[in-house]
């Protein structure tokens, strides 16, 4: 897949290479594959600024041992890449796409337009309208191209991953077992709470 080239090429001109003073950002690269095997889930986000939220989807999928990839692809800044990801998803063996975007959040809808595999949309919390803009943009798909939309922000990121896992678990008994264990542990933690 065409991803942003993060390495600068060696120049043949005489000038010594200028020191790279760009800030090092603690995020995963534009395209990264998590866990071995071909990815079943693609976690796509419209901007690097979405990663702090979407890392929770990444962590949840990793916790369940689901092979996935995380990528920054924008519907408006890299439209060709968005079309490529969507239209090749099925042939690459992806089974679910999780798409996160904020503001005029059309990424999930654009990806869904290019594929028939399920697309889950995660509305990002925005500065201007606190994510209400993202929520409405993601959820209000006209009939014919569905996007399953989850909650705004971190709860949505986690639930999109859990939803993807639930879909995959339909045909994977081991994953279904892990989901049951997850629910049991979650319930036990709540039952054990003692308020002072
Ligand atoms: C959307 O615009 C992204 O998904 C992000 O949530 C929002 C702001 O992006 P940046 O301006 O931070 O890159 O495309």
Principal-axis shape: globular
Rg, alpha carbons: 19 Å
Q: Encode the helix/strand succession as letters.
A: EEHEHEHEHEHH
Q: Class by helix and strand content?
A: alpha/beta
The biggest sheet amounts to: 6 strands, mixed
Name the beta content range. 5-15%
Number of helices: 6
Q: Look at the structure and give the mean pLDDT.
A: 88
Ends apart, CA distance between termini: 54 Å
Uncertain segments are 1-15, 22-29
Q: Could you tell me which ligands this complex binds, including any ions or cofactors?
A: 5-O-phosphono-beta-D-ribofuranose
Q: How many beta-strand elements? A: 6
Helix content: 25-40%
Strand order of the largest sheet: 1-3-2-4-5-6
Question: Main attributes?
Answer:
196 residues, binds 5-O-phosphono-beta-D-ribofuranose, alpha/beta, single chain, 37% helix, 14% strand
Summarize the structure in short.
The protein has six helices and six strands; from the N terminus they run ββαβαβαβαβαα.
Task: Provide a descriptive summary of the structure in words.
By secondary structure, the chain is of the alpha/beta class. It is 37% helix and 14% strand. It contains 6 helices and 6 strands. It has helices at 51-63, 79-88, 107-113, 132-139, 154-169, 173-191; strands spanning 31-34, 41-45, 68-72, 96-101, 119-123, 148-149. A 6-stranded mixed β-sheet has the order 1-3-2-4-5-6, with helices on both faces. Strand 5 (119-123), helix 4 (132-139) and strand 6 (148-149) form a beta-alpha-beta unit. Helix 1 runs parallel beside helix 5 and helix 2 packs across helix 3. The protein starts with 30 loop residues before the first strand and ends in a 5-residue tail after the last helix. Residues 1-15 and 22-29 have low confidence and may be disordered. Bound molecules: 5-O-phosphono-beta-D-ribofuranose. 5-O-phosphono-beta-D-ribofuranose (RP5) is lined by residues 46-47, 49-50, 74, 101-103, 124.
């Amino acid at each position: 897949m065409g991803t942003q080239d993060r390495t600068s090429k060696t120049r043949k001109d005489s000038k010594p290479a200028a020191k790279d003073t760009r800030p090092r950002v603690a995020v995963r690269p534009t395209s990264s594959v998590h866990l071995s095997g071909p990815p079943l889930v693609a976690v796509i986000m419209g901007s690097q600024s979405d990663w702090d939220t979407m890392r929770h989807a990444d962590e949840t999928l990793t916790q369940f041992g689901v092979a996935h990839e995380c990528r920054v692809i924008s519907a408006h800044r890299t439209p060709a890449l968005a079309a490529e990801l969507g239209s090749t998803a099925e042939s690459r063996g992806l089974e679910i796409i999780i798409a996160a975007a904020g503001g005029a959040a059309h990424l999930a809808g654009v990806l869904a337009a290019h594929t028939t595999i399920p697309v889950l949309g995660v509305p990002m919390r925005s500065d201007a309208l606190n994510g209400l803009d993202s929520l409405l943009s993601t959820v209000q798909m006209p009939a014919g191209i569905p996007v399953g939309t989850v909650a705004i922000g971190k709860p949505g990121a986690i639930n999109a991953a859990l939803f993807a896992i639930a879909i995959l678990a339909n045909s994977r008994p081991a994953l279904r077992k892990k989901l049951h264990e997850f629910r049991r542990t979650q319930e036990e933690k709540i039952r054990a709470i003692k308020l002072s």
